[in-house]
Design brief:
single chain, about 70 residues, 4 helices, globular
Length: about 70
Amino acid sequence: MTETVKGPASYFPSIEKKYGRSIAEWKSFIHASPLTKHMELVSWLKTEHGLGHGHANALVAHTLAEANGK
């Protein structure tokens, strides 16, 4: 049986398909950014990289949770 992916990671296949970059690349952009706050990073991904709000939010939420050991 295949386990259904839930939460922010459920957006990852569509993010990779729509924007042509791997999730690892997006995470490296987030880590390299001088910004640290969730909504600052979401806004930055939207304005600088053209991501939609849901996709940017999912990437930031997952990356920050991972960095915090959650």
